[in-house]
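Technical note accompanying the year-one report. For the benefit of new consortium partners, we illustrate the data format agreed upon in the data management plan: each record pairs a sequence with a structure-token string. No post-processing was applied to the example shown here.
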Amino acid sequence: MEESRLILCDTDVIIELYKNSTEIIEVLKQIGQSNIAISTITAGELLYGALNKKELSRIKQDINNLTLIAPDAKTSEIFLDLMTNYSLSHKLSLPDGLIAASAIANGLELYTLNKKDYRFIKGLVIFNPEK
């Protein structure tokens, strides 16, 4: 990537990184570690998915090496708007709603492998690794 900009990574991207997906590893290298951000919901989902204490410790260490985006009042307001607008019509899940709200509130592109979960959200910019 030419310029320095934070990219918010969805949980699925980080999970694929842990599975050693060469495609994801290459994209994240291009983004650069200092430009990779995750939301607190992603951090929580990763910790929740740990299979043992060793894995939990590794995930916690990895989280500490990334920029963590925590919800603030603006994120909360956007989150509630998203849930109001999309929970019935598009079945927007709570984690996806909070991740999308975090991206929108902070002006970040969202890198996700599940574009269908987000494509209907107005104001959300999906990161395109091909650019």
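Partners are asked to follow this layout when depositing records. The chain has a mean pLDDT of 96.
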